């Protein structure tokens, strides 16, 4: 059985730290807490789980803090979490099983990260991260902000999910870090350009975000998933600015990086739906339902674009086309994903009333 050090960097996490540590404590052999300046009860809560608590002066560099935490670890493998992450009970049990089964030749283990959720608790942002790494390899964190763990060697994918439980409101901390770096004249990597553009977009600075997304794409040196994401986010920015032509161009721009993704098919479906070109909208929404969704993809994904959303929109399109049986069929598929969705339930009642009258005359796909 391998041994595991859990490493966290924290600051003012009194509302989230206890459930985080409680969710994983039985699966780890030591807990390392690096505090970057808490003024609340964070340290007191940490002390109920570990005496391995260290202070680290915050220097606007997440990698520096995470690398310091990793240097304090003493066990064979290092697991890292944020203070607002948890392992659900079934995932903690899977981690315990992994401890028994993991071959020492494995250098890193990836786990899924459910980052954001809809009103029914379904994940709407899901991706993979290297979560458990062999300590002796001395893997390093890279980047002052939106840092990543640079790993190599034998990487194993685990069927374990870390669940994000965000309670903090949106902050301008990251945006200010980027702006301060610009003021100091620090060069930005392609990754920096991408994440700075994201911060600008998230703070409704759409015109400036467009500039930096284009700067990122112009480098030609970005990660393909970030390039595809930039096209999506450019479309969002142009939509907010009321520029539908450039919004459409941004969607098609994504096709130069990869075959069509479900998200972009849904965007095109919506474009035609709003213009009452229902047959064209059906084409793109149907394609979204038929595309293979790779489970190995490291990029951010929102399952709704390949599950309930295109089926719900197909229901709308077919209703406009007078094909109520098809509309009902796709609404039922959407309902299988979201049984408590009020709009889908409303569609069901409406279409059942229509089909009761004219069911025999309805066409099928």
Please tell me about this protein's structure.
It contains 14 helices and ten strands. By secondary structure, the protein is an alpha/beta fold. It has three domains: 4-164, Alpha-Beta Complex (Spore Coat Polysaccharide Biosynthesis Protein SpsA, Chain A), CATH 3.90.550; 170-234; 259-365, Tetratricopeptide repeat domain (Serine Threonine Protein Phosphatase 5, Tetratricopeptide repeat), CATH 1.25.40.10. Strand 2, helix 2 (42-47) and strand 3 form a beta-alpha-beta unit. Helix 6 runs parallel beside helix 8 (224-240), helix 12 packs antiparallel against helix 13 (324-337) and helix 13 packs antiparallel against helix 14. The radius of gyration is 24 Å and the shape is globular.
In short:
Helices cover 47% and strands 16% of the residues. It is α/β, with parallel strands linked by helices. The chain has three domains: 4-164, Spore Coat Polysaccharide Biosynthesis Protein SpsA, Chain A, CATH 3.90.550; 170-234; 259-365, Serine Threonine Protein Phosphatase 5, Tetratricopeptide repeat.
Question: Characteristics of this structure?
Answer:
365 residues; alpha/beta; Spore Coat Polysaccharide Biosynthesis Protein SpsA, Chain A; Serine Threonine Protein Phosphatase 5, Tetratricopeptide repeat; 3 domains; two-stranded antiparallel sheet; globular; disordered C terminus; TPR-like_helical_dom_sf; Glyco_trans_2-like; Nucleotide-diphossugar_trans; Glycosyltransferase
Q: How many separate helices?
A: 14
Order of helices and strands: EHEHEHEEHEEEEEHHHHHHHHHH
Distance between the first and last residues' Cα: 55 Å
Percentage of residues in strands: 15-25%
| Main sheet makeup | 8 strands, mixed
**CATH-defined topology of the largest domain:** Spore Coat Polysaccharide Biosynthesis Protein SpsA, Chain A
Rounded radius of gyration (Å): 24 Å
Structural class: alpha/beta
Instruction: Provide the CATH superfamily of the largest domain.
Output: Spore Coat Polysaccharide Biosynthesis Protein SpsA, Chain A
């Amino acid at each position: 059985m391998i041994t595991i050090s859990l490493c966290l960097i924290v600051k003012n996490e009194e509302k989230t730290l206890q459930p985080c540590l409680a969710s994983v404590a039985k699966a780890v052999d030591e807990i390392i807490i690096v505090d970057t300046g808490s003024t609340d009860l964070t340290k007191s809560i940490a002390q109920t789980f570990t005496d391995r608590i260290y202070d680290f002066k915050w220097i606007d560099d997440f990698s520096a803090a995470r690398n310091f935490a990793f240097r304090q670890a003493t066990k064979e493998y290092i697991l890292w979490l944020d203070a607002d992450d948890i392992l659900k009970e079934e995932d903690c049990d899977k981690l315990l099983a992994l401890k028994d089964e993991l071959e020492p030749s494995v250098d890193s283990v990836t786990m899924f990260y459910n980052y954001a959720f809809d009103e029914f608790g379904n994940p709407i942002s899901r991706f993979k991260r290297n979560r458990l790494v062999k300590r002796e390899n001395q893997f390093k964190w890279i980047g002052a902000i939106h840092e990543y763990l640079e790993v190599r060697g034998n990487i194993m994918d685990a069927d374990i999910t870390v669940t994000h439980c965000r309670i903090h409101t949106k902050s301008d901390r990251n945006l200010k870090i980027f702006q301060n770096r610009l003021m100091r004249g620090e060069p930005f990597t392609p990754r920096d350009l991408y994440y700075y553009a994201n911060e600008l977009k998230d703070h409704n600075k759409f015109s400036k975000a467009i500039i930096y997304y284009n700067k990122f794409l112009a480098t030609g040196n970005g990660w393909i998933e970030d390039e595809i994401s930039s096209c999506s986010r450019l479309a969002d920015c142009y939509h907010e600015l009321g520029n539908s032509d450039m919004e459409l161009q941004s969607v098609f721009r994504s096709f130069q990086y990869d075959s069509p993704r479900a998200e972009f098919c849904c965007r095109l479906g919506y474009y035609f739906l709003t213009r009452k070109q229902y047959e064209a909208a059906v084409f793109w929404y149907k394609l979204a339902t038929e595309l293979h969704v790779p489970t190995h993809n490291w990029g951010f994904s929102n399952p709704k674009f390949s599950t309930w959303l295109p089926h719900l929109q197909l229901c709308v399109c077919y209703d406009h086309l007078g094909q109520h049986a098809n509309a009902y069929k796709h609404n039922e598929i959407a309902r299988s994903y979201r049984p408590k969705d009020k709009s889908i339930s409303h569609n069901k009642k409406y279409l059942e009333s229509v089909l009761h009258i004219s069911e025999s005359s309805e066409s099928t796909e």
